[in-house]
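hey
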């Protein structure tokens, strides 16, 4: 590692944090930009040890857009389903825990999948069993476990596998 890399680690992080600093101050001046660059540099300097592993970056941005579109659609549909479930007074929800067998590997893809499931109303990721290669998911109303597993695999996991090869 060169002297420049040691003194200025993660220049992109410094610039992003400085940009947010300026946005938070809501006006552009030399002092605000300088303070943002100093804060960004200090954060990058003190957190450099946490960035030792190479990050997994999405390889196909169009697939990321498709995944986000699916997520937004599923959020709207799930919100309507949960609202209908709550408003139907005669029927009780059939909540259950499901062990979802993972095909994706790696911290980032598993985190993305578990986060997507938790963002969708009616499901939440409870635990990640790395040794067993599965996610434990709590469902508010579960009709068919096999159908849920297949739906998650088709709608999310196959795209995540392509985005993070």
């Amino acid at each position: 590692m060169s002297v420049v890399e040691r003194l200025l680690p993660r220049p992109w992080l410094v610039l992003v944090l400085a940009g947010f600093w300026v946005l938070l101050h809501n006006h552009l001046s030399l002092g605000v930009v300088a303070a943002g660059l100093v804060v960004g540099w200090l954060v990058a300097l003190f957190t450099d040890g946490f960035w030792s592993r190479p990050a997994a970056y999405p390889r196909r941005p169009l697939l990321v857009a498709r995944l986000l579109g699916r997520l937004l659609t599923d959020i709207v549909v799930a919100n309507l389903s949960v609202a209908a479930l709550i408003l139907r007074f005669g029927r009780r929800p059939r909540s259950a825990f499901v062990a979802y067998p993972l095909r994706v590997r790696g911290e980032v893809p598993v985190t993305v999948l578990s986060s997507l499931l938790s963002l969708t109303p009616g499901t939440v990721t409870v635990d990640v069993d790395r040794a067993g290669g599965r996610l434990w998911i709590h469902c508010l109303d579960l009709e068919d476990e096999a159908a849920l597993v297949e739906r998650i695999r088709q709608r999310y996991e196959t795209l995540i596998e392509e985005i993070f090869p």
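Helices lie at 3-7, 11-25, 30-47, 61-87, 107-119, 145-163. Residues 61-87 form the longest helix (27 residues).
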